[in-house]
Amino acid sequence: MKTGRPCNHLQNESAVADMIEYILISGVLMGLLIVMLLLVNTNIMENPANRLVYVAFTDIGNGVSTRIVDVYAIAPRDGTITTHFKLPDDIVGRDYFVEIGPGANPVDQDVKVSRGDLETDIALAGVGASRGVAGNTTGRGMNMILYNSSGFD
Length: 153
Prior knowledge:
The chain is of the alpha+beta class. Helices cover 45% and strands 24% of the residues. Strand 3 (109-115) and strand 4 (118-123) form a beta hairpin.
């Protein structure tokens, strides 16, 4: 003889349907959570860091341009001037490069500060039109601007 409550197939089917519903909803929510976590890294962490890097690169380019213009302003007709200056070692924990080269106009020159796919171009304030300026550096160590009235080889 059987003991216990009689078997109700309607309750068993309802329990299985509830469990399948719970598993499907949990799966969809987990999928949305994974997508959100992938987007959070890009939109909340990388974009503000890239904006900060762009502003820092602009400040560094303006500082280098100003120092070059200052050397140009006091350049002797015959002689040499050497000046040393310090740049930040890194921006947001990574190295960067500073390069002085031709600008958009053939006459102008730019200070390009770059790292990977991030770069800024700062005009050299007209010095390139009268005197050729060239060189590159990084943020590490002491940097130098050297002017020689007879030119460099």
